[in-house]
Amino acid sequence: MLVDRHRRRAMELCAELGLLKVIAPELYPSGGRQPPECGPDSETPTESENARIQGADAPRSVAALEWLENPAFELAFATLVHELPANNVETLCRQLKLSNHELDHITWLVAHRDDLLAAPTMSLAQLKRLLAHRCRDDLVRMSHARMLAADQKFRSRMFHPILFTEEFLSRTPREVLDPPPLISGAELIQLGLRPGPRFKELLDAVRDAQLNLEIVTREEALALVRQLQVGSGDGTP
């Protein structure tokens, strides 16, 4: 039903019959009917907005389903449950016996549902790490659907970040978005470092510098590692 073009009405009917509350009771924290989706700072929806929900007891996230175009199950389900905490969604996915692939896909989308709001103010490294994820296209599509189903205030908040993200993706080649790492743990061992928690800190720092376009060569990466080690007082060359 979630991938059918009448997915919204199907979920409304499930809600009317009480099936949705049995399958996913987490969608009903207050046990009653909810208004169409609003942003965190939204005002009370108008009567016309409330009228968009035909189902007598449909969760407000249902409204976003109709704005998805030919979604896969993972995207549609994530959109349905996106207002829940990610750990609750993981529990629900396990209860429904979803595959590990489906669970990972859905919970990632829910965990990052609001990340695009901050896209224009993220560092290049933060933005590239987010948009290099395999589920990023679905994140953009889910954000679109949420925006179109929400009230005017939330639409205004979402419009610019989504447009910014789409423009960034259109002008950023994959090899720039997610380039091969300049160094690995092997180079750190060659510098005399012992494997441990510090490895990840150094590799992450080098990766951030690379994604921020602050360094572009292996030699610059190794120089940065030496600089970070001296700055930390470790003394390792």
Summarize the structure in words.
With 237 residues, this protein is mainly α. It folds into two domains: 169 residues, no CATH class; 48 residues, no CATH class. It is built from 13 helices and no strands. The protein is elongated and about 65 Å long. It starts with 6 loop residues before the first helix and ends in a 5-residue tail after the last helix.
Gap between N and C termini: 60 Å
CA gyration radius, whole angstroms: 22 Å
Number of helices: 13
Low-confidence stretches: 31-56
Strand content: under 5%
Content-based structural category: mainly alpha
Q: How many domains is the backbone divided into?
A: 2
Question: Residue share in helices?
Answer: 55-70%
Task: Estimate the global geometry from the Cα principal axes.
Answer: elongated
User: How many individual β-strands?
Assistant: 0
- Largest β sheet strand count, sense and barrel closure: none
Mean pLDDT: 87
Would you list the SSEs in sequence order as H and E?
HHHHHHHHHHHHH
